[in-house]
Amino acid sequence: MSQGETPSVKQEKALVEMDRLLGGLARVMKPTQVGRWLKQPSSAFDGSTPLQVVERGEVDRIWRMLYDLETGQPG
To answer: How many CA atoms does the CB half-sphere of 27 hold within 13 Å?
Structure first.
């Protein structure tokens, strides 16, 4: 997608989902920490970074982690 170009339906959906995810992450950590967290390898994701998890289409793993954190469920 070039600057000024309208995103495709698929791109728009991905942008909306990423915005929702960033909002969810900001509920459990300081918003200023989200970017750094997304780039750090995590044992919760078998050593992958959260961004790698998203790129593989496994964003549900992050949503599950957020649910567990917000509800106090064991992870």
So the answer is: 13
Asked if 21 and 62 touch (Cβ cutoff 8 Å), the reply is: yes
Sign for the CA dihedral angle at 26, 34, 13, 52 comes to negative
Backbone angles phi, psi at 40, to 5 degrees: -95, 130
3-state secondary structure of 74: coil
Please tell me the pTM assigned to this model.
0.79
As a whole number of angstroms, the distance between CA 56 and CA 69 comes to: 22
**For the segment 35-63, what is each residue's pLDDT rounded down to a tens digit?**
999 999 999 999 999 999 999 999 999 99
